Every structure is written in C-alpha cells, then in structure tokens.
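Q: How do we represent a protein-ligand complex in a form that can be generated token by token?
A: Start from the inputs.
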Amino acid sequence: MAKNNNKDRAEKILQRLRESFAMPKWISSRNNPFETLIITIISQNTSDRNTERAFENLSRTFPITPEALAKAETAKIEECLKVAGLYRNKARVIKEVSKIILEKFDGSLEPILAMPFEEARKTLMRLPNVGPKTADVLLLFSANKPTVPVDTHVNRVSKRLGLAPVDGDYEDVRASLQILYKPEDYSAIHILLILLGRKYCKARKPLCEHCPVKDSCPSKESVAYEA
Ligand code: SF4
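Then emit the structure tokens for the protein with iron/sulfur cluster bound:
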C-alpha cells in the first residue's frame, strides 16, 4: 500500500513538473550517439554554456566522427576545448575513445547500442572516461533503452523528494526511479529533475517557497544544504 502511495505521489510530481517546465529542444536532436558521447566528455566539470561553445568550436573545425577525431592533431582539439576547462585531458580522451571506436567497433557505436542492455552498458563503461551516467545517457537517448541516468541534480532532487533513499548510491537511485516510473517516462523524469534542480532545488539554498512540487515534498521544511 505504501509502495502504491509512493507511486501515486511520484506520478503527481511528474505531472506537476511537466506542467511547470518546457522540454528542451535538444532532446529530439540528440540522437547521434557519437556526438552525444563527445558532448558528455566535454561537459564533465563545466557548465552547459561552455560545453555548447566548446562543442561548436570542435564541430566547426572537424567532422564529429571517430575517423576525423582519431587522426586530428591533439593541439587543435585542445584549442577548440579551451573554453570548457580540463581541455588537455578531454582532448586526450576524445582522441583515445575515437581510436577505440574506430579500431574495435568499425567506427560506430551502433553495434554496441544494439547489444542487450546489460552487455551494452558494460561495453560502454569499458571505454575511457565513460562511467554509468554517460553510458546511461547514451543508452536512453541514443538507443531508447530503459534506464534513468543519475547526474548530480537527479541524485540530490530525487532524494529530497523522497523518490530515492537518502543514502543510496548511483545504482540505488537509478533503481528507485525505475521502479516508480514507467519506462516511457524515464527520459522525462531525468530531464525534469535536472530542470527542477537547476531552477529551484539548488544544492545550496533551494527555493522551496517557489518550487512547483513543494506540496509533494517531504523535505521542504528541513532540506539539508550541501556545501
Ligand atoms: S520543496 Fe524544496 S527541497 Fe523539495 S523539491 Fe522543491 S526546492 Fe527541493
């Protein structure tokens, strides 16, 4: 019964979030898995704006393909990525990952994404700098596989909303959200929790008073601020 109540509450939260935020346009355009992978590598420890700028620089200079990036001059990739920080490391990873995809997977991520879910996830996570979040982003948005990527916002917000255990790790949070929601809603809940986290449920000083889901939130009076 409690489980059903939580499912109903989770559904209500999703509905309220859908009414409160417009879905970003990139969702429909983000279906080239190699581009998605490159964007996620660039986005590590940087803002969306800087990720976008670095990716634009890179796309203007090279075709975003494993062939082109595997043979590109590292210094030129670095130059494109400067705006996103950690550019030396990111340029090295991009070259390395491009080479592996070219040599081991015939220049395409498609054969990996076509594998059964767990096998695809494990294979992706063997690529350099690809952790569970990047693998889940690729599997969900480029292969329509049933998984909920857990980034820093999804982790914090779902715990405050009581949708995941407060001391849960990545896999616990992912599993909780996947139990509460239907697979066809996985991309929506991932995106909407990020939007809620950015606008209202900030790590420090969440704006509970203005939050669209405050009526369903058990933490609104007692939320712990993150340092
Ligand atoms: S009410 Fe506060 S703690 Fe709860 S989701 Fe909204 S901003 Fe976060």
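DSSP finds 13 helices and no strands in the chain. The radius of gyration is 19 Å.
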